[in-house]
Amino acid sequence: MEVFFPFGVSGMLSGAATCFYAFVGFDAIATTGEEVKNPQKAIPISIVISLIAIAFAYCGISTVITLMIPYYTMDHDAPLPLAFEAVGWPVAKYVITVGALCGLSTSLLGAMFPMPRVIYAMASDGLIFRFLSRVNERTKTPFIATVVSGILSGVMAMMFDLKELVDMMSIGTLMAYTIVAACVLILRYQPDSPTVVEDMGMGALDTGPWQYDAPLSGSRLFFELFVPSCRYPTKLSGQIVSHCTLLIGFVITILSAVFVFEQDFITAGHWWAVIQVVIIGLVLVVPIIVIARQPQNKKTVTFLVPGVPYIPALSMIINIYLMMKLSYQTWIRFGVWMFIGFLIYFGYGIRHSSEEARSRNTSINAIILTDSETETERQPLSRQNEKSTLLKN
Q1: For residues 312 and 192, is the Cβ–Cβ distance under 8 A?
Q2: Can you tell me the distance from the alpha carbon of 143 to that of 145, in angstroms, rounded to the nearest whole number?
Q3: In a 10 Å sphere around its CB, with 0-12 CB exposed, 13-18 middle and 19+ buried, how is residue 119 labelled?
Q4: How remote is the C-alpha of 232 from its chain's centroid?
C-alpha cells in the first residue's frame, strides 16, 4: 500500500488540487445555450457526459502509467512518451507526441471559443467596458473581445511557466465551482415573486411574520429558523438561506485551514487539535440543518440538483479544501487577480450594469406601489375622521 500510495491521502489531494485544470473546458457547453434547440435538457446532459468522459480518461491514464513504471522514474516534462519507451515501445512515443499536439490545439480552441462569448455577455450588460461588446460587421463576431482575450492569454503564457498557469487555472476553477454550489443553495430557496403564495390561494404575504416588514422577536426568529411558518419560500426564508450559505463558506474555510495546517497534530491524535475539528464541524452542521428546514422552491424544471442542501455543501467542502492544498504563491497571484477584478467591478461595472439598473428601478416601483396602496387603505379612515369632526362642530 505504501509503495502504491507513498504520499498518503494528503499527497493525493494535493495532486488532485493541482490537476483540477483537467476539468476546465466543459463549461464551453454552457456558453452555447443560445444555439441549442432544447438547452434546459441538452446542456445538463452534455455537461454530465463530458465530465464522466474526462474523469475516465484521466483516471485511466494515471492508473496505466503508474502501473507501467515507478513514479520516481517518470520524466516531469514528458512522462507518457518516456514511460512507453521504458517498457520497450519506443514507437508509441511518436504517436503520443502527435496526439499531444492535437490535444493542445484542441484545448486552445476550446479555451478561445467561450471566452469572447463570456466577455461579450458581460460587456453588453455593462459589467465590463461596453466597447468589448461591439460586433464586427463582416465576421458577425465580437472581434475586439476575441483580440483582447487572446492578447491577455498570450501575455500570461509569456509571464508564467506551465506549473504556475496550471495552479492558477485550478484555483480559479475551484473557486468558480464553489460559487456555483453556493448559488444552487441560495436559488433553490428563493421565492419566484412576492405573490407566489397569493397566486396559490394561500393569502397575501405582506402581513405575515415571515416578512422583514414585521418585527420579529428573538424567540420568533429562532422558531422560524427550525420550524418555518410557511410551506413555500418567502422573503425571510430566502434571506435566512443566503446568510446561512455565507456562514457555511466561512466555516468551511476555517475547517479546511485547520485540516491543512494542523494535519500532523490531527493525525497524531492530539486532543486539542481533535477538539478544534469537532467544534468547527458542529458549527458547520447547524447552518446546513437550518437550510434543510427551509421550504424549497417547487418550480418544476428539466434538471434539478438532487440532495440539496447536502450535495452543494459537500461540493463546497471539497473545493475549498482543495484550494487550501495549493501553494501560497498561487494564493498571492489569485489575490492580485481578484483585486483587479474587484477594482473593475466596483469602479465601473456596478455603476454601468443594465441588470443592476433594472433591478433598482423594479425596487423603486415596488416601493411606490406599496406606498400608494397604503395611502388608498388609509384614505377611507381619514374621511371618516373628517365626517366625525364636522358632526361635532
Answers
A1: no
A2: 6
A3: buried
A4: 25
Under the phi-then-psi rule, with left for phi > 0, alpha for psi from -120 to 50, and beta for the rest, what region is 300?
A: beta
Average pLDDT over residues 186-197: 69
User: Alpha carbon 63 to chain centroid distance?
Assistant: 30
**Cell matching residue 71:** 513514479
The letter for the amino acid at 284 is L
Three-state SS for 318? helix
Q: Which residue has the cell 379612515?
A: 381
pLDDT computed for residue 372 by the predictor: 57
CA 363/CA 359 separation, integer angstroms: 6
**Residue with cell string 454550489:** 181
- DSSP secondary structure code for residue 204 in this structure: -
Count the neighbouring beta carbons within 10 Å of the beta carbon of residue 327: 15
User: What CA–CA distance (Å, rounded) separates 163 from 165?
Assistant: 5
Whether pLDDT at 209 is above 50? no
> How far is the C-alpha of 314 from the C-alpha of 356, rounded, in Å?
31
Residues 6 or more apart from 117 whose CB is under 8 A from it? 31, 142
State how far the Cα of 328 lies from the Cα of 188, in Å rounded to an integer. 34
Q: Are 174 and 180 in contact (CB under 8 A)?
A: no
Using CA atoms, how far apart are residues 234 and 79, in angstroms rounded to an integer? 56
Dihedral Cα 269, 272, 277, 278, nearest 10 deg: 100
Which residue, 193, 194, 213, 214, is CA-closest to 205? Answer: 194
Q: With beta carbons less than 8 A apart as the criterion, state whether 129 and 348 touch.
A: yes
DSSP string covering 27-86: GGGGGGGGG-SSHHHHHHHHHHHHHHHHHHHHHHHHHHHHHHS-GGGS-SS-HHHHHHHH
Rounded to whole angstroms, the Cα distance separating 121 from 353 reads: 11
* Of 23, 79, 102, residue with least CA distance to 55: 23
Q: What is the pLDDT of residues 50-100, one digit of tens each?
A: 888 888 888 888 888 888 888 788 877 778 888 888 888 888 888 888 888
